[in-house]
User: What shape does this take?
Amino acid sequence: MSKGTLYLCATPIGNLGDITARCLETLENVDLIAAEDTRQTLKLLNHFEIHTPMTSYYEHNKREKGNYLIEKLLAGESIAVVSDAGTPAISDPGEDLVKLAIENGIRITPVPGAVAGISALISSGLTTGRFCFEGFLSMNKRQRKIHLEEIKTETRTMLFYEAPHKLHATLSDLCDALGEERKIVLARELTKLHEEFVRTTLGEAVEKYKDEQPKGEFVLVIEGASTTEAETDCTSLSIEEHVKMLMDEGMSEGDAIKAAAKQRGVPKNEVYSVIKKK
Ligand code: SAM
Assistant: This one.
């Protein structure tokens, strides 16, 4: 028996008109829909009068559910993965299932559509030629610190996701790491009634949201460091000075070695051997 196909179906990020004809056709024709939030997806399916069976696939059941879905695919069933909104596997479940499916020789087919980050980037007015997706800043203190360290010398435009109740803390941390003058575009409620773009600097954004309660969903688009800014930041320092500076900022030696290597664009071992020679 031939194996089934795993379809990665992007759904709208706010405006139902953004569903594609191919997504509707796929959702109608697959044997099963694996949804991050079945209640949310049911609304979408009801709206478009689609009656395909559905099962849940989300962060906390992805291990067992992943194996269950793979068995079905191996038995010849076709499955569509959908997240709450937007493109599966982008800050949403799907990534692990794709890996597992590939290991099992299952065909993957993307059914592309809305992604919040790309919609924000193309409307931002910042450089789109080279950009990087940074997702959410971790709530884990150590990981957050490493992430903020790593982006200090990033020259590409950066895309971040954030929840409204964490926006101010995130803006403050980004401002401390990248400086008050750095340009930022806050893309809010994309494709929805209250869609808005705030084009400002990190310093002003921190001020704006100090007292104002942010509402809705946000993508933060941040300009990259200028090449000279990025170069002076680390190449003016020796490897020892660089690692010491990071440790003075509170990192452990191991984390500082990792971050310094990334910032200088050299292998970790190179930094490690200089530090351990001391
Ligand atoms: N998979 C989705 C995608 O393709 O963009 C992202 C899911 S992630 C769990 C949710 C985050 O995406 C939100 O916290 C927000 O940062 C961003 N987001 C989703 N919809 C948005 C919208 N309509 N406007 C602005 N940001 C949005």
